[in-house]
Amino acid sequence: MKKYLIAGLLTWLPLAITIWVLLWVQGLLDGMFKGFLRLGHVVLPAGAAETLRALGEWPGLGVVVMVALLFVTGVFVTNLFGQWWLRQWDALMNRIPIVRSIYSSVKQVSDTLFSSNGNAFREAVLVQYPHAGSWTIAFVTGKPGGEVADRLPGEHVSLYVPTTPNPTSGFFLMMPRSALHPLDMSVDEALKYIISMGVVVPPPPAPPAGRLAPPEGADPNRAG
Fold first, then answer.
1. What SS3 state is found at 103?
2. Which residue has the higher pLDDT, 84 or 47?
3. Other CB atoms within 10 Å distance of the CB of residue 194
4. Phi and psi angles of residue 105, each rounded to the nearest 5 degrees, phi first
5. Beta strands in the chain (DSSP E)
6. For residue 182, is it within any domain?
């Protein structure tokens, strides 16, 4: 009976978690959409406010509207005119007390993590942590700067070591570049490896061009 229960759990659990994540995203986008509608109730005439209230009752409309708004905003801010307006908006937010400290901090972190030009979470490495002889997977987030970089001898990199099975918490380390062992696996594969506590093993890297992979069970170090 226990075997059948576990088999049933393993069948339904991925689908249940997928649905839960999608519902969470839908709730987040619907909440943002209703926040804009409440703002419209304040600034628009009574007739238009009633129309907005009716729109807020349509299921799924918030998701469609917010995705479209994000897309249009992305198109706008990626051209020269939109970038100018974005700089004016940033300057305005940075002049407001209290707000500027929160806004600037969140913007710096989000630009570092999600910018296509950044290096954060672009490389998975193997490091010895928390002591010599104990290994874990970490992600390179950049290089130390400022006073910290001046006090570190040699080339160092900034690392994020996620915890298992929740990778949203972890540890920030600064280690010598020579102490890192780069991995061929992608960041997504490394995250799956960490979240699964080593159960989901990434596939081996593809052999170099012109070289065939050794047959299964063969010794890859054996010549000929």
1. helix
2. 84
3. 23
4. -65, -45
5. 124-128, 135-142, 156-162, 170-176, 181-182
6. yes
Tell me how far apart the alpha carbons of residues 5 and 129 are, in angstroms, rounded to a whole number. Answer: 37
pLDDT by residue (tens digit) across 79-137?
A: 888 888 888 888 888 888 888 888 887 777 676 666 655 556 778 999 999 888 899 99
Q: Which residues are 33's β-sheet partners?
A: none
Joined together, the tokens standing for residue 14 give: 């991925």
- Distance, in Å, from the CA atom of 102 to the CA atom of 90, rounded to the nearest integer, reads 12
Spatial CA neighbour of 49 closest among 65, 37, 33, 57: 37
Identify the burial level of 26 via C-beta atoms within 10 angstroms of its C-beta, where 0-12 means exposed, 13-18 middle and 19 or more buried.
Answer: middle
Domain boundaries, position 162: 124-195
Cβ-count burial of 62 within 10 angstroms (0-12 exposed, 13-18 middle, 19+ buried)? buried
Could you please report the per-residue DSSP string of 73-111? HHHHHTSHHHHHHHHHHHHHHTTSTTHHHHHHHHHHHHH
pTM of the model: 0.56
Q: How many domains does the chain have?
A: 2
Residues 171-183 pLDDT 10s: 999 999 999 999 9
Give the other-Cβ count within 10 Å of 159's Cβ: 23
69: phi then psi, degrees, rounded to nearest 5: -65, -40
| Token pair belonging to 210 | 């012109």
| 43: Cβ contacts below 8 Å, ≥ 6 apart | none
Q: Is residue 49 included in any domain, yes or no?
A: yes
